[in-house]
Amino acid sequence: MKRKVIGLVSALALMAAPAVAADKVKIGFVTTLTTGAGVFGKGMKQAVELAVEELGGKMGGVEVEVIFEDDGFKPEIGKQKAEKLVKKDKVNFLAGFIWSHVLLASYKTAVQNDVFLISSNAGPAPLAGKLCNPNFFSTSWQNDQTPMAMGEVLNQKGIKRLYIMAPNYAAGKNMVTGVERTYKGEIVGKDMTKFPAQLDFSAELAKARAAKPDAVFVFYPGKHGAQFFNQYSQAGLKDNIPLYSVFTVDAVTVNLLKDLAVGSLATMFWAPDLDVPANKKFVAAYRAKYGEYPTFYAAQSYDTVMLINSAVTAVNGDLSNRDGMRDAMRKANFDSVRGPFKYGNNHFPIQNFYLREAVKDADGNYTTSIRSVVLENHQDTYAKDCKMSW
Amino acid sequence: MARLRIVLLIGLLASLALVPPIATWLDEPFYIVLFSRMLILAIGAIGLNLVMGYGGMVSFGHAAFVGIGAYMVGIGSFHSIEDGIDWMASGFFQLPAAIFVSAFFALIIGAISLRTKGVYFIMITLAFSQMLYFVAVGVEIYGADDGLSLYGRSEFAGLLDLNSDSAMYYVNFVTLGICLYAVHRIINSRFGLAIQGARSNERRMQAIGFPTFPYRLAGFVISGVICGIAGFLLANQTDFVSPDMMHWTRSGDLIIMVVLGGMGTLFGPLVGAVAFLLVEEILSSITISWQLYFGPLLILVVLFARGGIDGLLRPRQRADG
Amino acid sequence: MNWILLLEQVLNGVQLGVLLFLLAAGLTLVFGIMDLVNLAHGSLYMVGAYFAATFTSWTGSFVLAIFLAVPATLLVGVVVEVICLRTLYQRNHLDQVLATFGLILFFNEAVRLVWGPAGLDVPLPDFLNSNFEILPGVPYPTYRVMIIATGIAVALGLYFLVAKTRIGMLIRAGATNREMVGALGVDIKLLYTLIFGLGAALAGLAGVMAGPIFTVETGMGEGILILAFVVIVIGGIGSVRGAFVAALIVGLIDTVGRSFLPDILGLVLSNQYADTAAPALSSMLIYLLMATILAFRPAGLFPPSNG
What we know:
The complex is a heterotrimer of chains A (390), B (321) and C (307).
Chain A: H1 2-16, E1 24-31, H2 38-54, E2 58-59, E3 62-70, H3 75-88, E4 93-96, H4 100-112, E5 116-119, H5 125-128, E6 136-138, H6 145-156, E7 161-167, H7 170-182, E8 186-193, H8 202-211, E9 215-218, H9 223-234, E10 243-246, H10 251-257, E11 265-268, H11 277-290, H12 296-314, H13 322-330, E12 342-343, E13 349-360, E14 366-378
Parallel strand pairs in A: 1-3, 1-4, 4-5, 5-6, 7-8, 7-9, 9-10, 10-11
Antiparallel strand pairs in A: 2-3, 11-13, 12-13, 13-14
Chain B: H1 2-17, H2 19-25, H3 30-54, H4 63-82, H5 91-113, H6 118-138, E1 148-149, H7 165-188, H8 190-200, H9 202-207, H10 212-238, E2 240-241, H11 248-261, H12 268-286, H13 291-304, H14 308-312
Antiparallel strand pairs in B: 1-2
Chain C: H1 3-34, H2 41-59, H3 62-85, H4 93-115, E1 131-135, E2 138-141, H5 142-164, H6 166-176, H7 178-183, H8 188-210, H9 220-235, H10 240-268, H11 271-296
Antiparallel strand pairs in C: 1-2
């Protein structure tokens, strides 16, 4: 029975082993690598590894180390991993974060300990408004922006009657708020479905058909999206009521859905075929290395590394010069895959939003392609609640 | 064997007491946070063990009480900043609120659920905790499923500062000690014997004049309160509350910890919580596929360690019954 | 009230109920007869769905894949029973919970390693991936009709098996008095393996049926497992008939509640309040149902003695 004690001691010793080296740029990257959502995390991890490889493993002459942690899709686990990265691994940058609730849970750990926090995906309203912080940056978007662009698209297409469906969680509600903010027609019905447990949309689809809308707008990220598209088509709605979506048709789902997705329209700040040199290079390198199109999660993660690189390079690798690094990041002085952009006072990008369509490319691969610019240099609406100015 | 077990348990308590100085000495403050969380979940498991291990009432909904305790801190902190109601930030308000509100819900849930037995009891407690979970997901003012970030930890009028990791750790540790002692006193009291008697033979207890229902209900409420206190601590520890704390998988985790450590033993829940979280932490730091090893490990514990880890340390006996 | 919409929602409810029944039937048999709490039942459902996806892409035919995936899941179930669960029958429920929880972790990760994290899609053949008009102007997906038909066929088959065959007699006897069946010289071990295999096959079938509607992904078994437990508890543990009735009730309440609750609440509450309350309330509807039923009938609708 002594084994247990010995086990405990050796476990402690095991965890205490890696020594802290000050001569490295340490990036902690929290994402979801297990559970069904692990597929997003995989793409993000690949993009980060690609970016670090392109930089030759160095930023401003200093070696880079990225430590990946899995949040298991749970805020409490994510928070604990953030604590570990900040307090044990003593990272200089904490990045990643797919989910708003994981980011909000981990937020304090980073900013209170003077570690830069960079969101590679989640963009909850509080962080863009009241809780904005000098140590927090986003390389994605604020949640409302993409659906606001979609609202504009719906106006342009002359949609008079709209039916809305989204999962009943914070990001889902943000998406609905966003589209309601810009869409001018009538909303004839709205369903907020259980998340993430809801399996079957038949009841909502029947209601949508009965409401006779001109179009349906949905937000079902990741695999829920594939599920939804399947059921939409099986219910015979695909050919009758046009479906508009945000964050629903991405590089993952489009390969699950194949021809079912082709032709569907969505708004996004980026697409694999966006005509920007940095993007062409990124997409080509990503496809060459991993044999698939990058997801938008991957693109944002790639930008995260490049943003950090711009900061570390600007101070010549002097990681104690935090003000210098912050000033550098505020300039967004790097070749972003979305093209040049500026940061707003709340450290969220002011950027273009495009309309993109799911297509089959020349080699028979499924991907998405840009059709038009919907919003130019768009800033989120919460920036005015942010007290920060610089 | 029995003496070795006592030595080991004292050793475990002593090493837990020494975590902050050792971690500080190693310059690894993260371990204080890690073990803090273990202590808090151990308190929750101790609460659950009171009804599950001693009373034979397997509740699959105790995470709800943890969540209620946590939300009292979150809600207090929220209103103190958003609406300027200063006293709501005080621990002297939040802690009693956590205790009374979780007692209130435990009373209602227990009164209805105790009409059922066995698996039906498991499922009806699950039903109630799921309802509370969906309420929390639906309350938009308190962040819905995004939860609430605390503006500050509970304030105890300068008597106690929860903001340092070590202080927080010792608050958890002392609370754990109090809960252990309280459970020890309860199970050896007339009241505790009645609860345990009702587990093995309810009809006989009723025949000799014990009204088992109020006793079991009281046990359920006390257990809910202990979990509520754990929730109060958890919110302060993580600076955050979210509906996720009330999800059924969290109730399941608590059950797993109790069974793993040893049901119906005083220290079983503590041993189970520490073992569960420590193995999880170590395995997940080694491989991303840690569940592939953790799962079979649990099966092996069931097959070879009757009565959980604590059962390993006891003289061989029939663990069933 | 829109009657066509109501009819459509009732069909949707029946379809969800039937799917739940496929999963719950095996669970209630294993639980009622072998006294085994098998949390890994949802994992078998997941494995069935993955098999369906793989076999569909190998053979190119979903129909063929059904006939391959169900026996394959049965096989997995039997292997799990022989290696791991067999020793657990004599143990208390919580030991079983701990061990089968371990199995869930194992299966989720194993599936992720074998099939990758991205999840799979099960394409339907054209004749199923269409819809026909149940009433003039009301199209309904053909595949969902097929699920309903399959579920009802399985229910009838199970009824026949339990009520009319020798195995069924042993199953009924085993549910009432296990020791007695053993004493009468029946090979209990074999009987249990058979029943477990049957349960696994039903779970696999549920997974196969669910594949084309839901995305096949790791962890897909857990949420629906809880629903299946709700069903067997409402129905009364060990009762296949109870599971069928309860599954239909749960399916109907969930679907109809989801579709009409916002309108109903809108009548009594202000619009904005109804908008937030309705999703929360409809999510908890089946738990409310279960708590209410158990509060008044503590052993479910069809307690085992008359199952």
